[in-house]
Amino acid sequence: MALPPTLTSTSPLDRAHAARLNGDLDGALRLATALLEHDTAQLGAAALITTTLVAEDRGLIAGEAALRLVDAFIRRGDLPQALVAARTAARAGDDAEPLFATIAAAFGKGSKRLADVSASPPPLPDDVEVPKALAAVKGEALLARAEAAIEKWLATDDPLASDTSLPRLPLFGDLEPKPLASLLAAFEVRDVPADREVVAQGEEGTEAFVVARGMLRVVRRDGDEGLTLAILGPGAIFGEMALVSEAPRAAAVTAAEPATLLVIAREALEKVASKAPVVGQMLSQFCRQRMVSNLLRHSAILRAVDVEHREAIIGRFETKHFEAGSALVEEGAEGLGLYLIASGTVEVVGKDADGDELRIAELGPGDVVGEISLVLRRPANATVRALHPTVALELTREELHKVIKAHPTLLAQLYELATQREEETRSVVAQEAFDVEDVVLL
């Protein structure tokens, strides 16, 4: 996979963030000040200076700058950065609630500013060098120079109009302003240095994230091997399944460069949803859409159907939740449905001649189970049960028959999978019996 240029080189702003996260506040402030003095359109530099001034108890000018940043990022359609600026304003002593309400009014459902447009990010920073005179400044003098750069920026007019059209954002744009403001208030800001793991594969997730700045890698590890599944940039949402499911993380997420994340914990979301149930409803709907989108791209079964028909087929499935240890399919029982694993992990378990259990396979997102009984029209030859809390999409026997009539190629794919799985089950059981005979041979 070809990676974006930002993953192989760092901008002055990235270096400034890295310096701040490494404890070099003077170095970070010099770089950010040089950037803002060179170009007052560098909102990222203004934001970093503002954050540093707040940390140094320069709240008066920093508070004014943070309020300006909230408005500037709203105008550019950047909800995550606007929310980060609102949190900075709160640390400077301002009341954050009106700021959350302002952001929600701009991006929430019903806003007249929403349109089918893209965000308008500020220009990329030039690769400027810190002037020698600035490089020699430190301490109180450096803070004063940074404040002067902020004052100069505050004196400029924003080139974007205050009523600029804004993009419709997933999840956030589906909520009315009042519940959206409550949701925004539940997010916290977290800065992450480059190469820091944010999410560990296999761990139980308790948080979801929105990328405000920086780039992150999503990697699925198999032993010592790692496969990069995606690169996440500003605006990306990840880890949201942890808020509706206790399934372990399916992949690891690591910061490829210094990043700023918005983080919401499951407990915080539950508090919001208890007062505004629509938030939980919209999140569940959003997660289902994301699961469906993932399955449409990666499920081998769905690839047997023409692209234009896949979404209609997946719409016939119902979402089912299974606790750890719960059976999706029982050995010897007639199959009632076909299951597409959306998140979590299941094990396929058979029995040997002595009735002892044998693990035949372990399956995860994108895999299908229950096809043997339905397609071959015989009782299930193995039990399938959840190893962890698992979400699966179920297609009932009746719905499957309707789908197959309309898309006969799907039957061929399911038949091939069913016969292959049945043979694998027989082979595992036969091999186990052979091994036991070897052990007890006299």
Describe this structure in words.
The protein is of the alpha+beta class and 442 residues long. The protein folds into three domains: 5-179, no CATH class; 189-274, Jelly Rolls, CATH 2.60.120.10; 302-440, Sandwich (Jelly Rolls). It has 15 helices and 18 strands. It has helices spanning 12-21, 25-38, 43-55, 59-75, 79-91, 96-107, 132-135, 139-154, 177-185, 266-275, 277-298, 307-314, 371-376, 397-406, 408-440, and strands at 114-115, 166-167, 188-192, 197-199, 207-213, 216-222, 225-232, 237-238, 252-255, 259-265, 318-322, 327-329, 337-343, 346-351, 357-363, 368-369, 383-386, 390-396. Strand 14 and strand 15 form a beta hairpin. Mean pLDDT is 87; it is low at 1-8 and 432-442.
Q: Please give the order of strands in the largest beta sheet.
A: 3-10-5-8
Q: Give the helix level as a range of percent.
A: 40-55%
Runs in which pLDDT lies below 50 for 5 or more consecutive residues are 1-8, 432-442
* Major β-sheet profile: 4 strands, antiparallel
How many DSSP-defined strands?
18
Structural class: alpha+beta
Sum up the overall morphology in one term.
Answer: elongated
Rg computed from alpha carbons, rounded to a whole number of angstroms: 27 Å
Instruction: Please report which band the strand proportion falls in: under 5%, 5-15%, 15-25%, 25-35%, 35-45% or over 45%.
Output: 15-25%
Query: What is the total number of structural domains?
Result: 3
Quaternary assembly: single chain
Mean model confidence by pLDDT? 87
Note the total helix count.
15
| Terminus-to-terminus distance | 56 Å
